[in-house]
Design the sequence.
């Protein structure tokens, strides 16, 4: 059922100092009564996902409410795979799985959840921690627990991150441990389908990197895993048995990393020019853009076709290919700015929620 708050859309031109591309924002909807502190806002499908401790709503670019899922969480967060979202309670015990039509499944764990990942069919993987050991738990699209792997620092290392492939058959887990007084990272690929049934613990491939910290792993595209490191990123591909295909190295200190549905990238300090730069790559590892970033950003938000950097007043919007769409300084401080499909964005001030489009 599509509903909308009975608040008249208003047309407000945000006061900005324009530097390039579009000239500003037209606000097409505004709600001064929304408790913006109660929500996390995420790019989702053709709109946004509004996540609160007691409900999640899918809002399209016209502020029409497609659906609302109710629950009770303390610290809800959301992860995505295409149009499937998993809302989980960080250090809680519940996961609610939704698609563009609404919630369709849920998972409950015995131990607190510290990480979650979801596939396009709703299969879910979580890292849980009982205070002594961490566990890797995998649930199929019906919510049935398929596997539960106990990890220890001595045997496997600590699971630092996990990422489920879009098909849901491969789970990548990055472990960290200490060997010979140095940090060591290990990436293991578990296959819970036919290809992994004959493998010990369902591990079909693994890769060890001595003296290197793998900071984050994420699937992009159909079967490409990006593993970010202190030096850049390692690219793995393979539908059933992933292997390392490419190594992206960044010269200079990496300040931030980010991923979108079909790209990944870095913000880094260029040691030659002494400039802050952003580099964007395709799933194959081809560099799509490498350009200077002049703003002192604090937040990066990635949508299907937009990369947004901002610090509340300075805002830079790039396309997923790295083309600059807009750079400006807002005279009104923004708490959040999230792509909402096309050239539309959801934004919040200190006390107001708005939907706006570039003009």
Sequence:
């Amino acid at each position: 059922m599509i509903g909308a708050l009975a608040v008249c859309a208003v047309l407000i031109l945000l006061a900005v100092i324009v530097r390039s591309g579009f000239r500003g924002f037209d606000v097409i909807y505004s709600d001064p009564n929304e408790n913006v502190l109660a929500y996390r806002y995420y790019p989702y499908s053709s709109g946004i996902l509004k996540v609160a401790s007691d409900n999640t709503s899918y809002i399209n670019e016209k502020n029409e409410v497609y659906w609302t899922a109710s629950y009770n969480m303390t610290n809800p967060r959301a992860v995505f795979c295409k149009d499937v979202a998993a809302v989980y309670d960080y250090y809680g015990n519940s996961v609610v799985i939704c698609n563009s039509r609404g919630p369709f499944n849920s998972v409950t764990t015995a131990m607190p959840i510290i990480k979650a990942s979801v596939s396009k069919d709703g299969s879910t993987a979580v890292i849980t921690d009982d205070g002594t050991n961490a566990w890797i738990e995998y649930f199929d699209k019906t919510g049935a627990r398929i596997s539960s792997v106990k990890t220890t620092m001595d045997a496997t290392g600590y699971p630092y991150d996990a990422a489920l492939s879009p098909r849901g058959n491969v789970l990548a887990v990055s472990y960290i441990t200490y060997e010979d007084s140095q940090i060591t990272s290990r990436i293991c690929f578990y296959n819970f389908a036919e290809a992994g049934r004959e493998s010990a613990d369902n591990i079909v491939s693994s890769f060890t990197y001595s003296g290197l910290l793998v900071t984050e792993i994420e699937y992009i595209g159909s079967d490409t895993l990006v593993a970010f490191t202190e030096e850049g990123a390692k690219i793995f591909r393979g539908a059933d048995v992933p292997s390392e295909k490419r190594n992206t190295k960044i010269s200079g200190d990496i300040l931030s990393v980010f991923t979108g549905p079909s790209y990944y990238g870095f913000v880094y300090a260029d040691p030659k020019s002494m400039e802050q730069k952003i580099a964007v790559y395709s799933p194959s590892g081809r560099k799509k853009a490498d350009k200077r970033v002049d703003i002192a950003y604090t937040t990066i938000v990635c949508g299907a076709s937009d990369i947004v950097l901002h610090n509340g007043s300075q805002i830079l919007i790039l396309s997923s290919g790295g083309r600059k769409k807009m750079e400006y300084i807002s005279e009104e401080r923004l708490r959040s700015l999230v792509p909402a499909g096309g050239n539309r964005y959801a934004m919040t001030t200190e006390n107001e929620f708005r939907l706006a489009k570039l003009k």
Summary: The radius of gyration is 21 Å. The first strand starts at residue 12 and ends at 13. Residues 1-19 have pLDDT under 50 and may be disordered.
